[in-house]
Amino acid sequence: MSEGLTFICLSVLIAAVGAAEVIAPLRTTPADNLRMREGASFKTAVFADLHFGENAWTEWGPRQDYNSVGVMSAVLDNEQPDFVIYLGDVITANNIMIENASLYWDQALSPTRARGIPWSSIFGNHDDAPFEWPLEWFSETGIPQLHCLTANASFAGGEECSFRGTTRLELMKSEIEQNTLSFSKDGPRNLWPSVSNYVLKLSSASNSQEPVVFMYFFDSGGGSYPEIISNAQVKWFQKKSEEINPDSRVPEIIFWHIPSKAYKKVAPKFNIHKRCVGSIFLENVAPQEAEMGMMKVLEKRPSVKAVFVGHNHGLDWCCPHKKLWLCFARHTGYGGYGSWARGARILEINQQPFSLKSWIRMEDGSTHSEVILSS
Amino acid sequence: MSEGLTFICLSVLIAAVGAAEVIAPLRTTPADNLRMREGASFKTAVFADLHFGENAWTEWGPRQDYNSVGVMSAVLDNEQPDFVIYLGDVITANNIMIENASLYWDQALSPTRARGIPWSSIFGNHDDAPFEWPLEWFSETGIPQLHCLTANASFAGGEECSFRGTTRLELMKSEIEQNTLSFSKDGPRNLWPSVSNYVLKLSSASNSQEPVVFMYFFDSGGGSYPEIISNAQVKWFQKKSEEINPDSRVPEIIFWHIPSKAYKKVAPKFNIHKRCVGSIFLENVAPQEAEMGMMKVLEKRPSVKAVFVGHNHGLDWCCPHKKLWLCFARHTGYGGYGSWARGARILEINQQPFSLKSWIRMEDGSTHSEVILSS
């Protein structure tokens, strides 16, 4: 081991971002029902690709996480949303060598929790990716001095670093058990290794039995298993949507992390944006590895209005595709590749008449790329 | 889960190959001293790329393992070696979903152990590679019915499958603790994540203090960390060899799994074999990711006679490189890519005068590619 760089202790950042927080009691019942407020629209902020926990052996990583907390705080204070969606790649597990990566995950949740806003989360391809040893650690420089002392002394391991990672199930169980504001779920067991598959109902202010919209969350894989939405997930969606929305009367919106191949088809080419709305068109779409039927099912179902994904930090567009919209969120985190200005996609739902409007709120407070996704 | 293929229970194969075995007592002291027999040469069989545990969810995998036991048995019975070297990729961890991959590792050791022959082992890039989920498991076919019941009921997990893998340290500790015949070591802690780094001394029949040859074993990485021999390993070799063989008087031979870039340079091109000796020249060399100084040190040290690697199943040559020889072993296992006939490289060491001869013994009993590596 060289006497090189020293890992900045995690507890410092936790103290910094969590100061104003009230410790939430353990949740007792799972929640799958969100409620509109009387006379108000329902506003959701989508936080995509936060990538907490990068390069934890240098000062760079913790500084990016601190900056990402700043982005989220600015968006939350400007928009005052009713709900937040963490759209995957919440952490960069391939850089994390502490025993329990939930500590980084928890940091990412903290600005939302501190404001008492409920949220839900899904997994991206980095959240349980295996640790990647930097090649330079094998050169003369050697492995930097790593301090893996965790903030919570009760965690096993103490100062011992661990390179085995934290599984999707462990991350999700930790989030759910420790947060009453979390609406996340670890999904049906028969869909594992795909974990974050669930549906939330947003119901009317006047009648909790009256659904305004169903929000479907899917794990699009990556990290410990292929970047894919399985046929089993497709079947689960078909069964579930038939059961709770048999006549397709209630609008449905869909969230997952990695764009499907359909995004590649509708992506603007040669700088011709057609009916697409967005501000950055700077990358090729990096789609899932294969299609197992999800897009066909969504395209045919009249109630499905839009799909939202992250993953490509250099894309923030919405493009129409057949009778629905395919949208990217906006790179929210200072972690992850790319130095495009950070922001978050906002969704605004109105009940009577139903409308789904979206725009992007930037860290500096500006907004752009407003689009109506319900027409 | 579909009602598809059923995983063939591991215990069946263990029973089949382990029948004639005497259970060895737990080892108490580490061994690093091998001894020549009076008036005899010292013969070593090198088993490379056995790849136990492939496709464990079909009948194919266990059948290949059974066949690999056959190859090893044929070689051992024909050659009656004094020692065996397991040259990495003993198992295909990226296919193994039982809690403890040591069970497969142990199967690979069983033909040698059953004959009372001592051995040592090093790691290849597959031995702790992360589980790779087959893409088809996410299609309509679904995940086959997996039975992960282990032969040893005391292992945690019971029938629960595990996809987290078994670390190099766990594999090595398990081998060492359970086998008095094992000369393997988990190496200096400051070289981790690189684990199988150690040296064995072969000493004279007449005088246990008189070394005939030093055999150096290195972990060339891959799987959970990059395919590389680190600068720290180079420094360890320099220090160790200076300490135990300061005047370079005693010959040294070297074993690791992944060829270094020097192999690419000396590989026969355009079917011109020059001074190379071998029978298959059917692939491009797949070398380590980077050089951190090991080859330069070996090339300069007069006592280093030869380097032996596996990894490329379609290569079995020895080529001269500066004042030493670079040799491939021979693909021994039915697991792993390629259908070239299986065999094992044999090394024969004589003391007075010192000589290092090598040939390849095939499963069918034939031999070929004899070469003197000490001249």
From TrEMBL, chains A, B:
Pfam (any one): Metallophos
Keywords in alphabetical order: Signal
Family annotation (InterPro entries): Calcineurin-like_PHP, Metallo-depent_PP-like, PAP14/16/28/29
Entry's transmembrane regions: none
Signal keyword on record: yes
Keyword Ribosomal protein: no
GO CC, one annotated term: cytoplasm
Single GO MF annotation: hydrolase activity, acting on ester bonds
Stretches assigned to the Calcineurin-like phosphoesterase domain: 43-313
Signal sequence range: 1-19
SUPFAM superfamilies (alphabetical): Metallo-dependent phosphatases
Entry protein name: Purple acid phosphatase 16
